[in-house]
Amino acid sequence: MKPPIIIINFKAYENSFGNSALELSKKIEKLSKEYSVEIILSVPATMIYRISNEVDLPIYAQHVDAVPLGAHTGAVLPEMIKDAGAKGTLINHSEKRLRADEIDDIIKRLKALNLESILCVDRYELVYPFSLLRPNAILIEPPELIGTGISVSKAKPEVITRAVDEIRKTNGVYLIAGAGITSGEDVYKAIKLGAQGIGVASAVMKAKEPEKVVEDFIINALKAMS
Predict the structure, then answer these.
(1) Residue of 34, 38, 141, 215 marked catalytic
(2) 141 an active-site residue?
(3) Interacting residues of 22 by C-beta distance below 8 A, sequence separation 6+
(4) Which of 37, 150, 187, 223 is the most buried (most CB within 10 A)?
């Protein structure tokens, strides 16, 4: 994981699976190589194997469950996503909340498997205590802004700046900003406020020309880092 970090959560849209998802992933891969910026794709569990085998990008799961191997019908386990080709996973997304003890268990298991983790939190007060669990990165996303098109960097810049202050108490954990990011300007401002990267979903997945959106994000992320 290397700044500027760009993670695109495919979620469960019409183009999040099948040939549409693979085609989009390949377009993003081309941009990643052109600009030498690593882009993480967080895809449905059913697409991890297919995309990781055909696209040279870090592929993440969107969620894993904190249950051991055994009789747990429907569970997605860290061991499963590694076998499918994932390099890591999101944890505790606002649409897939977990208890603190579950988060701790998952991060320990991921580390044992040499998998990366991006831990989602909804407020800056949680950044420091959860950073002590040593995920690779913390993604701060005020849930009220997710999918609204109103970016956290514009509507609530203090959320990022306060989160930056909190993450500095723990060395080696990156801070990623998300929620409502829709433009290159949003990306630029988030990184200038101190984030090491951005997380997006609907801005890319619902765009008519998603590759142009991703390219705009990359250009502005690099500009902000320079």
Answers:
(1) 141
(2) yes
(3) 47, 50, 51, 54, 55
(4) 187
